[in-house]
Amino acid sequence: MFNKILIANRGEIACRVAATARKLGIRTVAVYSDADAHSKHVAACDEAFRLGSASARESYLKGALILDIANRCGAQAIHPGYGFLSENDEFAESCEKAGIAFIGPPASAIRAMGLKSASKQLMEAAKVPLVPGYHGADQTPALLQAEADRIGYPVLIKASAGGGGKGMRIVEQSGDFAAALASCKREAINAFGDDAVLIEKYLQRPRHIEIQVFADTHGNCVYLFERDCSVQRRHQKVLEEAPAPGMTEARRSAMGEAAVAAAKAVNYVGAGTVEFIANQDGSFYFMEMNTRLQVEHPVTEMVTGHDLVEWQLRVAAGERLPALQHELTLTGHAIEARLYAENPDTGFLPSIGTLARFALPQAASFNRDSLVRVDSGVREGDEISAHYDPMIAKLIVWGEDRATALRRLDAALSETQIVGLACNVEFLRRVVACEPFASGAVDTGLIERNREVLFPAPRAVSAAMLAALCLEQLAEEVRQMGVSNGNARRSPFDAVLDAHGNSSGWWPNLPSVRTLNFTRGEEPFAVRLRFTRAALVIECDSTTPSLQATVVGRARAGRVDALVGEQHVVAQVVRAAQHKRVLFLNGWRDEFTYVDLLDVKADAAAHGGGLASPMPGRILSLIAELGAAVAKGAPLLVMEAMKMEHTINAPAAGKVISFRYAVGDQVAEGAELVEFAPEAA
Ligand code: ADP
Ligand code: ADP
Ligand code: MG
User: Fold this and answer.
1) Substitution site in 82, 110, 273, 396 for ligand 1 pocket (most atoms within 8 Å of beta carbon)
2) Ligand 2 atom 12: residue of nearest CA
3) In this predicted model, what pLDDT tens digit does every residue of 153-211 receive, in sequence order?
4) Catalytic: which of 16, 169, 207, 292?
């Protein structure tokens, strides 16, 4: 076994690999970009070396530099994690040449599976079933169009070099093909440096079921069962579970054996995943093979009890697989939820920012044997930047059966508090609770088809919410007063805050009525407060029906503990910015703005709006014609950020006066992109 390895990655996967290395007594070397100099993965390793500036090209993709560092510090092996260099055959080859073990498959296997089209030709020869489609080398647009027409619509155009759900376009009819092809090629060249595409029949209501395979250098190859990753948005996984709902023993071994055949066809070694797209009737087709450890590998670890990173290290060191097929068992049910920095309500637009609060479930630990596990590469105070993937953490739970695992996942999500950027935590809770998912009726269209329950109108504002916001506001005012007065003066609100019927400190000569104003989105809430001897009475007419409640309780450091009417309320209020209040109550999250009537400037800024860039990125194309009338929702320009294309649409009917940037320009978040004149009403 190795004494020292270098981890050529960042974030949660670098931390994950470091944890197993530590368990095995292997020393670890981290590499990092300037953006990650103080990151968790650097702290998790024994040594660390700087690679360069933040962009991946200047840091985590610098294979030669990474190899050089490994040589200099005496690392015997390199673990590439996922993404970055993990599926780079040239890098794997350079490692082989330099006598440093690449903890992954041989370069030849990566190359064979690297391009979806070439791998399909191989699989065809190995008699692994394929989706009807075209995966030839001829890329003439007219030929591709003819192939699509032959296959029959809808079809899916895929970048052959694609990954991470990027570079894919569904085409519903022949007339739309040319435009979709152009846009797919543009995204592909941009993201993968290769614009070759393949075409597949777009299956209706399919499931994504993948098989974890593992092979050693002694000729053993096993499958560690399946993972169902059907719940996706933008063709990218959101929830992953094992076993797949409704899986039968017969189908499991058929898929397992097909996956092993695929791996053997390329002389595979190490951890790999064979992805299949399956019809509801259970028939399945090869989609692609990912020649690396997968994001969702913890699900498999939980149901098999094996540490897959340990397997990787043992195999790379020349050992035999720790278990053979007949020794592998599948126990209980595991499910993983990916916590992404993104806003489900704006089409899952990635979000960036500093994690002002990052609170995880109490029960969570990294231990593989625990029921709730969190794999994350960030800590409170860390930043999620636009340079890398927007995944914040993975929450993985285990249960004796699926229903138990789902309950546990919901509980874990309800204890997860993330403030400072948009996050999909609540969305995940709704998916977990929705009927089709709960009953195991999954397919890749589940999210789209259940929009109504998954994207509900905001919940009604309750007395508990308003009480929590008011108590927090009062407590913070008292605290600030105490700070500025050196605690010399007591406040009239102390009675309420110290509370529980104790009115000592009450100053009867000060005003005992006050109004606090909050907004949620565009909705205003004026809350009248009346201080009585023992309690605070709140009233709000902005809601229907109007609310009134007697409140006794306190708030300290944002934690509210109060009796509101007859309800015991425990809540957390986090100040995300000066006026922004994020309220966590009963596991749900609500955002409010405190309206400080004295601070008009902040209010004006909050209503700025306009056609601002939602995130840092680059302008790809300007679509609208200057001065020409456009309808509301018409595309004005396309930008690229976090490896995705985003279209900026007209907020209303009107016309574009000018574009503030040219194609290729880099723009900052919030930058005004377009001068737009709405049509006079
Ligand atoms: P999985 O099937 O394991 O979920 P994904 O395809 O979603 O894998 O990708 C795994 C991770 O690697 C994601 O974080 C994704 O953003 C990243 N990734 C995938 N392809 C690339 C690529 N070509 N370059 C950089 N990162 C990538
Ligand atoms: P990536 O390399 O981005 O992971 P995949 O080829 O694995 O690309 O496909 C990603 C997802 O796109 C699948 O999980 C599935 O939801 C959807 N998909 C892929 N191929 C098809 C198809 N032929 N029909 C329907 N959906 C598909
Ligand atoms: Mg895939």
Assistant:
1) 82
2) 235
3) 999 999 999 988 889 999 999 999 999 999 999 999 988 899 999 999 999 999 999 99
4) 292
pTM (2 d.p.): 0.87
Write the DSSP assignment of 378-433 as a string of letters. --TT-EE-TTS--EEEEEEEEESSHHHHHHHHHHHHHT-EEESS---HHHHHHHHH
CB atoms within 10 A of CB 46: 14
SS3 498: helix
Pocket mutation for ligand 2, best pick of 119, 135, 168 (most atoms within 8 Å of C-beta): 168
In this model, does residue 669 exceed pLDDT 70? Answer: yes
Amino acid letter, 616 = P
Phi, psi (5° rounding) for residue 340?
-110, 145
234 is catalytic: no
- Asked if pLDDT for residue 116 goes beyond 50, the answer is yes
Quick check: bond before 635 cis, omega within 30?
no
Answer yes or no: is the C-beta of 82 below 6 A from any ligand 1 atom. Answer: yes
Query: Which protein residue has the closest C-alpha to ligand 1 atom 21?
Result: 83
Distance CA 461, CA 549 (A): 13
From the CA of 163, how far away is ligand 1's center (Å)? 6
Burial of 244 (0-12, 13-18, 19+ CB in 10 A): buried
Rounded to whole angstroms, the maximal C-alpha distance in the chain is 90
Q: Is the pLDDT assigned to residue 603 strictly greater than 80?
A: no
Structural contact between residues 24 and 313, judged by C-beta atoms closer than 8 angstroms: yes
Which residue has its alpha carbon closest to ligand 1 atom 7?
Answer: 164
378, 11 Cβ separation under 8 angstroms:
yes
Q: How far is the CA of 188 from the centre of ligand 1 (A)?
A: 14
- Nearest-atom number in ligand 1 for the CA of 166 is 20
Is any ligand 1 atom within 6 A of the Cβ of residue 275?
no
Q: pLDDT tens digits, residue range 496-543? A: 444 443 433 344 444 578 899 999 988 999 999 998 878 899 999 999
* CA separation for the pair 607, 614 (Å, rounded): 15
Amino acid sitting at position 268:
Y
Q: Give the Å distance between the CA of 288 and the centre of ligand 3.
A: 6
Q: What is the number of the ligand 2 atom nearest to the C-alpha of 201?
A: 23
Ligand nearest to the CA of 193: 1
By the 8 A CB rule, do 109 and 291 touch? Answer: yes
Which ligand places an atom closest to the C-alpha of 165?
A: 2
How many other β-carbons are positioned within 10 Å of the β-carbon of residue 146?
A: 14
C-alpha span between 141 and 60 (Å, rounded): 35
Strands 383-384 and 353-354: antiparallel
Residue nearest to atom 22 of ligand 2 (CA): 202
Report the pLDDT value the prediction gives residue 498, as an integer from 0 to 100. Answer: 47
Predicted pLDDT at 502: 40
Q: Give the ligand at the shortest distance from the Cα of 229.
A: 2
Report how far residue 329's alpha carbon sits from residue 29's, in angstroms, rounded to the nearest whole number.
Answer: 34
CB atoms within 10 A of CB 283: 13
**Cα separation, 118 vs 286, whole angstroms:** 13
